[in-house]
Design a protein that fits this description.
Blueprint (H helix, E strand, L loop, with lengths): L1 E5 L5 H12 L17 H13 L3 H9 L3 E6 L2 E8 L7 E6 L12 H6 L7 E6 L17 H14 L5 E6 L1 H12 L4 E8 L17 H14 L4 H6 L3 H10 L1 H15 L7 H4 L2 H13 L3 H13 L12 E6 L4 H6 L7 E5 L6 H4 L1 H14 L4
Parallel strand pairs: 4-5, 4-6, 6-7, 7-8, 8-9
Antiparallel strand pairs: 1-2, 2-3, 3-5
Helix pairs in contact: 1-2, 5-6, 9-10, 9-13, 10-12
GO molecular function: epoxide hydrolase activity
InterPro entries: AB_hydrolase_fold, Epox_hydrolase-like, Epoxide_hydro_N, Epoxide_hydrolase
Pfam families: EHN
């Protein structure tokens, strides 16, 4: 595999083009201040103006470049990511798998903290972006579903010199983690999944026959509350190109597309997206999606996942754990009803993006999980 060091260097003309596009935005009518129809226009205007005039991409680019990165060629597809080796030579290799709609930026705070902690075990951290996300672009062809992504990540880990590793993932990254347990077998030391209440409010929720009538009623209310949240999924799993044109051509569409999900899926006690996620990191996540032209890539992955064949009934023996962020007692009742997982932890705050929302807690959970399972 062709894999080499990489440094982010967005050409000045692309940065200037972003600024100019933001200045020329055609805005829809401002008819509501709530979020029920999407990102409010007044809020989007304020955030876009901050992105255009106050946000410093070059400073964030420099911050990201302080972490070593790689660019791999996997069957002709560029795959970019972080590779933060610990100064402790015998640290445990750790693969971090992001979810939707994120990228390697999700782990920009977590990765260095895990590589060189003040105390406790250290890790050699690898955090690639899924093909089509971040700077794992452009997509060079169809077929990049979860199984193929897992295979690519396993090949990258071995190319970097890690024959065995721990994997941590949430959302789509949880699917990649599970696939690695199935396909990479004993090369996966253990797998830790992060989750939030949204995971039990979808059509893919595990069986709930064991719930009490009161719990079933609560579960139905959770699903009903999230029913209107899945429009993004409907269009991207059926007509990904229809939304890709806007995400690729309009920075404000890319901004509001991501920001709405950050607001919807983070800690409900936080009023605005920047109350849950640091504003610079949030805008860096959006900027990387913009500069990498990742709008069509994210849509493509969801389409591929929805249309991929699934081999039901496969099992594995890799130790697994789960960390739940958000106050919802039904999470364990549904996701680990018989207590079969090797590790379970819950936190009352946080949500879909724990590496950005609660990085210290997640880092502690990763260390505690590894102490609870056999690593040999």
């Amino acid at each position: 595999m062709d894999i080499r060091p990489y440094e982010i260097a967005i050409p000045t003309e692309q940065v200037d083009d972003l600024t100019q596009r933001l200045a020329r935005t055609r805005w829809p009518a401002d008819l509501t201040s709530g979020w029920e129809r999407g990102t409010p226009v007044s809020y989007a205007r304020r955030l876009a103006e901050h992105w255009r005039t106050a946000y410093d991409w070059r400073a964030q680019e420099q911050r990201l470049n302080r972490m070593p990165q790689f660019l791999a060629d996997v069957d002709g597809q560029p795959v970019h990511g972080l590779h933060v080796r610990s100064r402790h030579e015998h640290a445990t290799p750790l693969l971090l798998c992001h979810g939707y709609p994120a990228s390697f930026v999700e782990f920009a705070t977590l990765a260095p903290a895990l590589a060189d902690p003040q105390d406790g075990p250290a890790f050699h951290v690898v955090a690639p972006s899924i093909p089509g996300f971040g700077f794992s672009t452009p997509l060079t062809g169809h077929g990049w579903d979860i199984a193929r992504t897992a295979e690519a990540f396993d090949r990258i880990m071995r190319a970097l010199g890690y024959e065995r590793y721990v994997v941590v993932g949430g959302d789509v990254g949880a699917g990649v983690s599970e696939q690695l347990c199935l396909d990479a077998g004993e090369r996966v030391i253990a797998s830790l999944v992060t989750t939030d209440p949204g995971a039990i409010a979808t059509a893919y929720t595990p069986p709930t026959d064991h719930l009490t009538e009161e719990e079933k009623a609560r579960h139905e209310s959770l699903k009903a509350a999230r029913a209107e949240d899945f429009g993004y999924l409907g269009v991207q799993t059926t007509r990904p190109l229809s939304v890709a044109y806007g995400l690729t051509d309009s920075p404000v569409m890319q901004l509001t597309w991501i920001v709405e999900k950050v607001r919807e899926w983070t800690d409900p006690d936080r009023e605005l997206p920047e109350d849950a996620v640091d504003l610079d990191q949030l805008l860096t996540l959006v900027s990387v999606a913009w500069f990498g032209r990742g709008g069509d890539g994210g849509a493509n992955l969801l389409y591929e996942a929805a249309h991929a064949s699934v081999a039901w009934g496969r099992t594995h023996d890799r130790p697994q754990g789960m960390v739940a962020f958000g106050e919802e007692p039904l999470m364990r009742r549904i996701l680990d009803p018989d207590g079969h997982l090797a590790f379970w932890a819950e936190h009352p705050h946080g949500g879909h993006f724990p590496a950005m929302e609660r990085p210290d807690e997640l880092a502690g959970d990763i260390r505690t999980f590894l102490a609870a399972v056999p690593v040999g």
